[in-house]
Amino acid sequence: MNKLFCFGLGFTGENVANYFIQHNWQVYGTIRKERSLNPNITVLKYDPQAKLNDLKDYLSETDILLISIAPDGMGDIVLNNNFDDITVLLKNGIKRVIYLSTTAVYGDAEGKEIDENFPVNPNSQRARNRIKAERQWINLCKEYGIPCNVLRLSGIYGRGRNQIKNLLNGNAKRIIKKGQIFNRIHVEDITNIVFALSNSRLASEVFNVSDDLPSPPQDVVEYAADLLSVTPPDAISFENAKLSNMAKSFYSETKRIKNTKIKNILNIQLKYSSYKEGLEEIANLKSNKKEFGILQVAPSIDSGGAEQTCVEIGRELNINGLVSYLASSGGRLKGEYEKGGNIHINLPLNSKNPLIIIMNIVSLIYTIKKYNISLVHARSRAPAISAYFASKLMKVHFLTTYHGIYSEKSLFKRKYNQFMVRGQLTIANSNYTKQIIQERYALPDNQISIIHRGVDTEKFNIKSIKSNYIDQIRKEYFLENSKIILLPGRVTKWKGHELAIEAFRKLNSNSNLSLKLIFAGENKKHESHTKKLKKLIVDYGLENDIKFLGHIKDIPSIMYLSDIVLCPSVEPEAFGRVIAESLAMGKIVIASDIGPVREIINKNDEDDPDNYNGYLFKSGDSSDLYKKIEKALNLNPKQIQNLSLRAVDSIIEKFTIKKMCEKTIRIYASLLNKNVR
Length: 677
Fold this sequence. Notes:
Layout: E1 3-7, H1 11-22, E2 26-31, E3 41-45, H2 55-59, E4 64-67, H3 77-91, E5 96-102, E6 113-114, H4 125-144, E7 148-153, E8 155-157, H5 163-169, E9 174-176, E10 184-186, H6 187-198, E11 205-209, H7 217-228, E12 235-237, H8 245-251, E13 256-257, H9 260-266, H10 275-285, E14 293-297, H11 305-319, E15 324-328, H12 334-338, E16 343-346, H13 354-370, E17 373-378, H14 381-394, E18 397-402, H15 411-417, E19 425-428, H16 431-441, E20 448-450, H17 467-476, E21 483-488, H18 497-510, E22 515-520, H19 527-539, E23 546-550, H20 555-561, E24 564-567, H21 577-584, E25 588-592, E26 615-617, H22 622-633, H23 637-654, H24 657-672
Parallel strand pairs: 1-2, 1-4, 2-3, 4-5, 5-7, 6-13, 7-11, 8-10, 9-12, 14-15, 14-17, 15-16, 17-18, 18-19, 19-20, 21-22, 21-24, 22-23, 24-25, 25-26
Helix pairs in contact: 1-6, 3-4, 7-10, 11-24, 13-14, 17-20, 18-22, 21-23
């Protein structure tokens, strides 16, 4: 696993760190004050005035060193405090240093267009400090033959730091100074550039990092106000503006930064070519919460995939400045949902009783009025009925998400299910689910969107594992010195436990390895089936080798413990969440080739070492399952490692919670810009 060490987890450093984690990098970083950060970052408290003890231990095996700490009058703080440790690092394996500087080093160019060849001419002490720090790093890296890239950044903005937020908070100022031009760059574009450099073979270079549209500062404030449909703040002349000395120094310089070099050499395409695109996205997410609200409706807020998605969407909305609303009958996730100020409305939306459904319609109408709801998102059939009528009567937007493949064995159920496709848009959690919906209801493509279930890659991550719990499980179930095959999930007929037992029986009799098959999942609701399985195990003489663990709270630890994860379902699931979670853990996954599984497991071509992330077997075929398990057990350590990396990468690329939330919120934003049908 590649490793990034970031000195300074400020606004930019934290964004970079999170992006690298999403791409399966190991990330270390420093902070000055304790605060909440991504738990996958190994955080060190760093006093700029003192040497960080044992730094060389933390720096070991670092691939990319990122410096995002402002220098002082003596130059770079990191080098001045920890020179010996840094030189050891430069001697022993570091591939690249990236130093985040500022375009302030150019000073005032009187509005001219300038590139990296323009002579530095700093006007301020802070800019002079930057020049000194740049040269320190460039010279030191040159001495050791390490590439050093200096990124001269324009004014940084993004989620959490922008004029949309300033307007909403009442802190925006519209200062007018004739001829004043500022340059800007979105933090996500900085992140993309740092990542591109980290994976390049580029020599030492200095780059300007700025977008394509240098603009007067008042234009940005006015554009942000227009996006929010609010009146911009009164114009203030520069002469009458009460500004800090630092702010005044910004206004003492005007220039137009050219970004041609970074585009040509790294082939970078900016995600936000100007402040307009950047603010438009932020405005879609951060629309004034007094103007509209988003209400999710669900039967309960307990522990299923749909319920957890409600929590995750609510959290993302909250992060982006919106109060999120959820109506349900309650449950164990209610407290988690309400963190950050989100509001839960307790309604019996799990009921199918016609009288209660009518009462729920009335209650939802009241809720829509009270909280100024503009969009209602239903996540199951029973609440969808109430939500549909309430939305229709109140003329607000309505959409649904299909989280499962619902049975249609009767005319009543078909009519009942149809409310799930009566919204302006139906979200399917897989291509397979979309296909089923279209076969049943002839829904056109423009009325259905696919958003795959997101995996919590912070939870399902080998770094999250508690070693003491692992040891406890090994001892309790006598799993030491054995190869562990895991089947996670509720004990039901369609999960394929019997199929797994049949394959394991053959495997156990033909292998010299010590093997254990463990079932981790709730079995109380299906006791008769569980008894049947246990009898089969006894009949085969496998009671010492096959274990029922029951409900497991810490499923990632059980996955970590296992060598192989089985998902042998004999009926198709709507998505295959357990498969995706297991892949996120870097596990060898063997799954039934049924339903949407091929959307998660890339290809059943184990002979192509670069083109598969797991194994598929013929659904319902215990012999084929046996062959795949045997093949997986015969992989050498290098093959296992490569397969594990491909597994994790495949989830990071397509199935993270962040991607799921972003896609969902983009749909919200799109609908809110349309008229209700």
